[in-house]
Specification:
Elements lengths: L1 H27 L4 H27 L1
Helix pairs in contact: 1-2
Organism: Alteraurantiacibacter palmitatis
Keywords: Membrane, Transmembrane, Transmembrane helix
Protein name: CTP synthetase
Length: about 60
């Protein structure tokens, strides 16, 4: 169970980081690592908060 959550965390972080890097490179011409990682980490936190809220709402 823990390994699955770690895999989801790493996969989500990589996905969001690549998407943010691609966006910044295409539309702004430059992408700093700080901007990429901070935005990706914030997106992963939002993902986990959404998963937590979804699980809490289904239980009543």
């Amino acid at each position: 169970m823990i390994l699955r959550e770690i895999f989801i965390f790493i996969a989500a972080l990589a996905m969001f980081a690549s998407a943010v890097a691609a966006y910044l490179a295409v539309f702004h011409g430059a992408a700093s690592v700080k901007d990429i990682l901070s935005t990706a980490f914030a997106a992963v936190i939002g993902l986990y908060l959404g998963r937590y809220l979804e699980r809490r709402l289904t239980r009543g």
